[in-house]
C-alpha cells in the first residue's frame, strides 16, 4: 500500500495532470540499457552477445516500463487507460474484423434490448403522476365463465359496503371510460378526446397533484346526475385556455353538454388506463349527463353504478392476496344478502397494470409472451456471441506468434489476458450502442401492432433498460472475449512458434463448422416462414371482394352520444348525404349500419312463408340506403336496389323491401330468380313480411378469409340510426375525403365531431395484424440470421484459407492448377452449405405445421416457397465464399515459403 | 505498492530505499545506472538490481519528496555525452536518510541481542 498521504496525493495529482510521459520513462530506461551495453562491450565480449547479456541482466524493458507506470499513477486507472488505448489501436488496425464483430453484436443485442424495453413497458414503467403505485391494484367484479370473468358494474351503495371497515382495503375509487366523448370550448370545433367518469375520491386516492383548482367533493358525486363539473388535464387546459389557472371556472362542452372546469391535474397525469390516456374527468354520477341519457336513466345508473373498474389502495402491510381475499368475502356476502341485485358480481378479478401491484395469477399470460420473445432474443444473442468468438479466435490463432513473442520479451500473462478482455468489452459496448439503435428501429417497425394478451407493443428506452443493456453487453463481451483471452494465455510458446500460425484443436474446428451449418439452417427456416406470411398477406389483399373497394372511405357517425334521437339522426344523415353528393369530386354516397368486412354483425332469422318458423336460419343483415350498391359498385344480378321511399318510408309500409345476396336467394328458393317473392322474418316476438326487390352479386361480407356470407339487405330505418356508417366514393385521398366530410358535417351541426376515416385496405390490414406482425418479425429475424450466417461462413472460410496458406503455397509452387485449389475451398463451402440447407428445410417442414392455421391461400409446405428460400441461400453462400476462394488462388508461394 | 508483486518487493522495499539514499549521499547526483552499478560493486555482486525494481523505487522516493529528478548530460567518456536522468537528495531526503540509518542500527542491535541470547 502506498505509504504516505503525500505519496497518494502525488499519485492522484499525477493521474490528473501532465506527468512524466511514457516516452520520458522509456527514454530513461533505454539510457540505462545503453549504459549497460557499453559496459558489457568494454568488458570485451562480442558485440551482439554483449547487448543481449546486458539486456538480460537489466531485466525486461516492458516489465520495467509497466512497473514504472504502476508507480506513476493509480495503478488500476492507469492500467485501464493504457489498455483502452492499446485495445483501440488494435481494433482500428483491423477494421473489417472490428466492424463485422460490432455488426454481429448489434444484431444480437438489439433484439435483446427491444425485449427488455417491451418488458419494461409491460411490467415496470409506472403511470405518470400517481403516488406509491406499488400499493395500488385494479380490480373488477363479475361472474366466472369458462373464458374468464364476465365483468359487471357495482352500485355506489355496494361499493361503500365493500370498503366500510375493511382492513386490507384502505380506499377504493371507480373509473369508467366515457364512450366516444367529444370535448369542445364554446365556438370551437369539437375534438374527440378520451375522458373518464370517476368517483369523487379518485384523485385523492391516487395522490395526483393539481396545478389549479380542486377535485370533486363527495357531495358532488352523490345524487343521480351528479354535478356538471370537470377536471381537465394540464395539456388540455393549456390547449383551450392558454394556462391552467385560466381554465378554472370556464365552461367546456362534453358531448355538447356544458360542464364547468373546477380543477386542472398536473401535466403528466393521464388517468389509470395504460392503454388509453385520458384528458378529462367528470364525476361518476354525471356519466348519464355526458351521454345524453334522460334524467330517469340517471337514477337507474346510480343504482347499477357506472363503474366496471376500481382502483384499490391497499392498507399499510396488506398483500395483494389478502386484499383480494377480503374483497371476495365481501362480494359474496353482498350476493348472499341480496341475490337478485348482487349475484352478478361475485367473483373478484385483478388486472395487470405496469407499476401497480398485481397477484401472481395475472402476470403469467403476459409473462409467457415476453418469455417467448426473450427466448428468441437469447438465441440471437448466443448466435452473435458465437460468431464474434469465432472471429476473435481466428485473430487469436493467427496472432499467436505475436503473443508468444511478446510474452518472451516480458509481458505478463495477466496483462495479455486483460488486453484481450478489454478489446472484447470495447467491441461489446460499441455493439450495444449500435444495438440500441437497432432496438429503437425494431420498436418503430412493430409499433401499432396489438398482440393478444399483451396489448400494443411498445419498446420503452429509459435508464433501467439502458443499464440492463449495458450489463448484458458486458456479460456478452466477457463471454466471447474469454475464449481468445485464455487461448492467448495458454498458447505454448515453443509449440506456436514452431508450427507457424496453425495451432488449433480439431474440436474447435468441428464446433465452428457445426455452428456455421446451423446458422445456415436457421436462416433458411426463418426465410421460409417469412415468405409464407408475405404470401398470406398478398393473398388476403388479392381476394376478389365482389365489390370495388378502391376510392371508398368510411366514417362512423356517433350521433347517439350527442343527444340525437332516432328521427333527428335520420334527418342529419339524409342532409349530410345530400350535401356530400353535391360536392365536386364525390361520386356517390351511401349509408349502412354494417359495411362489409366489419364482421358479421347482427343477424336475423328468416324463413319462407308457410314454413315452420323454427326452421328459420340466422343470417347476417345490414341496413342500407338507396345509394349503397352504387357506391360499392356491387352489381345487382336481378331486379333493382331499394328506392329512397322504400328506405325512409319503410316504417309506415306493411312490408319491408329487401335485397338478397345470390347465395341467400339460392339457399332459400333454389334459384336467384326471386323478384317479387316474399320472406318472413321474426323480430321481437312479432313477424314481419319482406318483399324481395332485387338480388345482388355475392360478395364478401364478414371476413376476407372466409367464404362469402349470404347477406340480407334491409332498409336503413330497420335499425336505430344513431351509429350508422357513411360511405363515400370519391376521387380524393382518404385525408382529403375526410376533410370534405368534416366540412359538410360542421355545416349541419358543428357540435358533432367526425370520426377518423377508414378504407377497406386498412381494415384488412388491421384484421390480419397478427399475420403482418409475424411477417415482419420473421422477416427481421431472417435478415439478421442471414447476416450472421453469411458473416460466419465468410469468416470460417477465410480462416481456413489462411490456415492452409502453407499447403496452397507449396502446391502452387510445384505447379498445381489454381482452379483446383479454388475448387477444394469451394467444396468445403458446398458441404457446409448443403448440410445447412437440408437441415433448414427439414426444420421448416416440421415447424410449418404450427403456423398452418394462420396462413391463407397457401400451405406451409408450398414447393415454390422452399425453392425460393433455397435459391436465396445458395446465392448468399456463393457471395460469402467468393472472396476467400479467390484469395486461395492468389497465395504467393514465394511469400509463404519465405515466411516459414 | 504496485500491483501483484507484493511479497518480494515489500521485503526489498525498505532496504532498497535505504541503499538508494545512502548511495546518492555518497556519490552525489547520479543517474539510475550509476546507482545500480555502485550498489552492485559495494555488495560485491550480491545485489543485482534490475530496471523493474530500481526505477519504480526512484520514482517512489521522488514522489515522497526525498529525491529530486532532472534530465542532464552524462559524460560517458568514449562515446561522448548522452542524455540521462539524474537524481539528487533533497533536504527531506537527507533527514530521512539519517532517520533510516538510526532505525536500521536499532533494529540490527535488537536482533543481534536476541541472537546472542541463544545458546
Keywords:
heterodimer, A: 900 residues, alpha+beta, 5 domains, 13-stranded mixed beta sheet, six-stranded mixed barrel, 31 helices, 15% strand, B: 119 residues, Arc Repressor Mutant, subunit A, three-stranded antiparallel beta sheet, 17% strand, disordered N terminus
Structure, explained:
The complex is a heterodimer of chains A (900) and B (119). By secondary structure, chain A is of the alpha+beta class. Chain A contains 31 helices and 25 strands. In chain A, strand 14 (450-451) and strand 15 (455-456) form a beta hairpin. In chain A, helix 15 (363-398) runs parallel beside helix 27 and helix 28 crosses helix 31. With 119 residues, chain B is of the alpha+beta class. Chain B has a single domain, classed as Arc Repressor Mutant, subunit A (Orthogonal Bundle). A 3-stranded antiparallel beta sheet of chain B has the order 1-3-2.
In short:
With 900 residues, chain A is an alpha+beta fold.
**Strand percentage of chain B:** 15-25%
Largest interface: A-B, 39 and 29 residues
Shape of chain A: globular
Q: Kindly give the count of domains of chain A.
A: 5
Residues in β-strands, percent of chain A: 15-25%
Mean pLDDT of chain A: 80
Could you estimate the helical fraction of the residues of chain B in percent? Answer: 55-70%
Structural class of chain B: alpha+beta
pLDDT < 50 stretches of chain B: 1-9
Largest sheet of chain B: 3 strands, antiparallel
Oligomer: heterodimer
Number of helices of chain B: 4
CATH topology of chain B: Arc Repressor Mutant, subunit A
Distance, first to last CA of chain A: 48 Å
Text of the CATH class of chain B: Mainly Alpha
Radius of gyration of chain A: 38 Å
Instruction: Identify low-pLDDT runs of chain A.
Output: 492-503
CATH architecture of chain B: Orthogonal Bundle
**Count of structural domains of chain B:** 1
